[in-house]
Amino acid sequence: MNTNTTTLKLRDEHLEWKQIDGEIVALDTLRAEYLSVDGSGVELWHALRAGTTRDALIASLVERYAIGSDRAGADVDAFLDDLAGRDLLAT
Amino acid sequence: MAVAPLIQEPSTRAAAANAHWAAVASLIDRAGSLDDLRAHRLQLLAAAIWQASGRPVPAELRRDRRYAATLAIAAPSVLRRARAAYDGRLVLFKGPEVAAAYPYADARHFRDLDLFADDPYAAQHGLLAAGFVEEQFPGGWPPSRHLCPLMWPGIPLRIEIHVTPHLPPWLPAPSAEELMADCVPGRAGIAGVLAPNPSAHALLLTAHAWAHRPFGRVGDLVDIATILIGEDRSDVAALARRWGWDAMWRLTAQSTDALLAGAAPPLPLRLLGRNILQVRDLTVLEFHLQRVLAPLAAAPRATAPTVLAGGLRELGAKCTEEGWRDKLGRSGAALRNARARKAVHDVSTNNHPWTR
Prior knowledge:
The structure holds two protein chains of two kinds.
Chain A: E1 15-20, E2 23-28, E3 33-37, H1 40-50, H2 54-65, H3 69-85
Antiparallel strand pairs in A: 1-2, 2-3
Chain B: H1 12-30, H2 34-39, H3 43-52, H4 59-72, H5 75-85, E1 90-93, H6 95-99, E2 112-117, H7 120-129, E3 133-134, E4 150-151, E5 158-162, H8 176-180, E6 184-185, E7 193-195, H9 198-212, H10 218-227, H11 233-243, H12 246-260, H13 267-272, H14 274-277, H15 284-298, H16 304-316, H17 324-336, H18 342-349
Parallel strand pairs in B: 1-7, 2-5
Antiparallel strand pairs in B: 1-2, 3-4, 4-5, 6-7
Helix pairs in contact in B: 3-4, 9-10, 9-11, 10-12, 11-12, 15-16
């Protein structure tokens, strides 16, 4: 779905969110659907708000959690797939 | 307790804000328990202040704050939809407008978005046409100070379009034109959604607090004082005189000054509002005394006999859904539990906490 260097970004519109107690609570106002993101997803969420690439997301997880790039890649892909399935990524 | 500076630039307003929030933090420290903080609707503010100062925050307060955040993030989109659905002025008061004046996010809970509109019925119609739905009530929505609450499907926040503000029965109602005069851009930051000017807003909050619970909650007084940080109190007093609300405003202002500025408490607060001064839940006896007697200190003097009669009638009235046997049982329980905490009494007797 994503090439490694394509810029990925959460959509700016119809998405309200805030971080509280180490957790992202978000509301997709188009679907009227609440979401919760915690753990390493919080870091990925912030990076995606600013705009980033798959490679950069993987690198950030490898560095922060001292895990292998395969594991980090799988986690990042699962997270991105989840966001894409909810139409939360800008196209 | 240390409170982080709110605004860095040395201005009078910033100094007033810092003094205000330091006083609020001291009040919170005065409370003996989480239940006392909840009784005064200060628990989220306490959690925010404790977190900012590095103190541990109980898990239940973290959960409460998370819930408040969940509701608060819905407010902008709901308000934008409402704004797009109606052409006239929309004036937001209470809830998010007050919360936006707090220095900490999610430190003031709200579930409703209270709006005035130039034409409340046209606004209600416009919102319904745009996809808002009416909340369902058995038997329909009765005549009330606001029209049937509206919700956007899937979003747990209600919009209440007011025909009149929530006022104690002894208070004269200002006209819609007066209420909406000199509105200002809202703090909640939604383009095109206005707010009452600070003086009118403080008076509306004051009237709402007195209608809901005379001398009921410290949180209500904190809201009122917060809206007026850096404002000229003489403007509020002048508007209160114009609306015939001066006795209520004077007592409320004296009470906020007693709590937050070290002034001597006014006599009615010393006699009837010890729960406020001590930041503790009130007893059953205090609750009933406050409901019957406190309005006498805040109502226009000429209305005193009517106010007292109304308070006594309310004390003796049964609820619509209960029989006289139930009412007598409830009164007996109130007498037996006269010195019990109101919240404990309500739980033990299955009372609605604020209306019985």
